[in-house]
Amino acid sequence: MKKILTIVGARPQFIKVAPVSRVLRNEFEEIIVNTGQHYDYNMSGVFFEELNIPKPNYDLGVGSGSHGAQTGAMLKEIEDVLFKEKPDAVLVYGDTNSTLAGAIAASKLHIPLFHIEAGLRSFNKKMPEEVNRILTDHVSSLLFAPTETAVENLKNEGVVEGVHNVGDVMFDAVLYNITIANNKYKIEDFQLESKQFVLATIHRAENTDDLVRLEAIFESLSKLEDTIVLPLHPRTKGKLDTLGISDKIKDAKNIKIIDPVSYLEMVFLESHSKFIITDSGGVQKEAYFAKVPCFTLRDQTEWVETVDIGWNRLVNPVTENLLDIVNDTQSVEYVEHLYGNGDASSKIVKVISDYLGK
Ligand code: UD1
Ligand code: UDP
């Protein structure tokens, strides 16, 4: 049996690895390496338990740090694991520092690299994720693009070999878990009423590391008429505390800050929300999957398809008035299958089998 070494480390990667690993293990030996980029129980452990992700073979425990320190520490540790395990290929997900560290380690040792969620571009190189994606794509042997737009982006950079449009593994994850979530929870469990609250998440560096933007975001949220449920990412919590914004938020009675929730809780809350406000890549798509309107507090998005059909609206929190935009938004026609058919994991494993042989 061929050996594939999977590298994960951050919350969205735990969610993506669950459906892929389930199928991959039917045909391959999988070694999971968790870099430990995210480490709080509600950012990491809860997903392994709830989504039945196999226990990592290696927990590197790298934790937080500046980009160089964090990525460098991961790179060194991953290289040691690669020397030891000698896998036939390395599999990485998305665009975090864990993705980049895995990509550099594998490519320097001439181990074929497979990238899930290849070809996404925001065309803003100030985003750490954009740099991570571009570099990873350019050293990958198999590039699993979720959309035609991603395939085109790669083509425009001269990357055509090994590119496969398979759809989005996050759609696989939602389809598998939404029934489980619906059987597990009632909206009353959260002291909420269905469609009577707004769900929000904020964590992007471009929003949290800019005081003007961060203040504008919370100012805008406080002006909305609805109750806003905000599972707060630890990065944002840290910034609010150090910048002294926390007290102002406590005065905004409509904003209900809670700790990060589990994936099952999240997809359940998404489906019962009136609309979603976010800067998360994954949550933008989950809003579309849940058929809930979305307002994205960013200047660009990689997930352009949801914006193109009018389901997702980009809002600059500093120069635009979120309340007016929310109130003026008309309902739009839903377009099915922007991100494939929910069988991305099987398609990925088929392509890998053809590439490696079993
Ligand atoms: C990372 C990814 C981002 C992704 C996000 C998903 C990079 C460059 N960024 O951003 O693309 O959208 O994960 O959530 O890889 N912290 C904790 N506990 C944790 C994890 C983080 O307290 O379990 C705090 C630390 O103060 C840390 C900060 O959050 O310094 C940022 O964490 P980090 O992993 O560096 O980046 P994210 O903002 O989470
Ligand atoms: N998510 C979660 N609990 C939360 C917030 C988000 O389970 O409290 C899930 C969400 O449903 C989605 C993923 O985390 O599947 C998105 O991750 P995140 O927003 O951290 O990163 P991004 O997608 O922006 O890289």
From TrEMBL:
Judging by the UniProt lineage, the source's domain of life is Bacteria
Q: What EC number is given for this enzyme?
A: 5.1.3.14
Keyword Lipid metabolism assigned: no
Q: Give GO MF terms, alphabetically.
A: UDP-N-acetylglucosamine 2-epimerase activity
Q: Which UniProt keywords apply?
A: Isomerase
Domain UDP-N-acetylglucosamine 2-epimerase positions: 25-352
Which parts pass through the membrane? none
Q: Which family does it belong to?
A: Belongs to the UDP-N-acetylglucosamine 2-epimerase family.
State the name under which the record lists this protein: UDP-N-acetylglucosamine 2-epimerase (Non-hydrolyzing)
Q: Which gene encodes it?
A: wecB
